[in-house]
Amino acid sequence: MSQQGLSERDYARHIGRSRGSVQKLRAAGRLVFHADGSIDATASDAQRARTADPARQRGPRVIVSEPSVAAMKPVPEAAVGAVSETLKEQGLPTPSAGALTYLQARTANEVLKAQERRLRLQKLKGEVVDRAKAAALVFRLARQERDAWLGWPARIAATMAAELGVGTHELQAALYEHVRDHLQELSEIAPDFR
């Protein structure tokens, strides 16, 4: 009884790959078989062309007809917007409405990976600081500054009172009020770490 299609070895020769590659294609479900278990070369070639990642294909690029719009999964608008924004930030051409290509999405992905690696390297070098740590440090320094200013009237009141010839307690109370009012104005300044 003869086979209807090709064996794994014959199909490997047909596509110019190793038998191991054909076995991987079989395991991935990218081959079509006849009832006798042999490989249907024509249908398998078409199946491989439909499911191939263009970036991983070897040899000359073969232009495959576009699948019908009904067969394609819709890409969420947020994803298209993120790709467009990334490409625009880099000065690259952005996709027109609904015309996002695989190459544009891949380019945006590579740009984002490069930015992430650069940021990670800057963080390792100490050029980038953690926002939460910076905010905590600023808060702690502001509190120390505030406490120092609130203690200042008590330290300086006696000296100033002697120089001006006024009562120490009254001068200290007046200084404390003015310092507290000034610190209240300064507390309305909020640091922005963006």
Profile the largest sheet.
none
Write the element-wise H/E pattern from the N-terminal end onward: HHHHHHH
Number of strands: 0
C-alpha termini separation: 74 Å
Backbone structural class:
mainly alpha
What general outline do the C-alpha atoms trace? rod-shaped
Individual helix count: 7
- The level of helicity is 55-70%
How many structural domains are formed by the residues?
Answer: 3
Parts with pLDDT < 50 across at least 5 consecutive residues: none
* Average pLDDT number: 82
Strand residue percentage: under 5%
Whole-number radius of gyration? 36 Å
What features would you describe in this structure?
By secondary structure, the chain is mainly α. It has 3 domains: 8-65, no CATH class; 74-125; 131-187. 61% of the residues lie in helices and 0% in strands. It contains 7 helices and no strands. Helix 1 (8-15) packs across helix 2. The protein is rod-shaped, with a radius of gyration of 36 Å. The N and C termini lie far apart (74 Å).
Secondary structure blueprint with pairings:
Layout: H1 8-15, H2 19-27, H3 41-51, H4 77-89, H5 102-125, H6 131-164, H7 168-187
List keywords for this structure.
mainly alpha, 3 domains, 194 residues
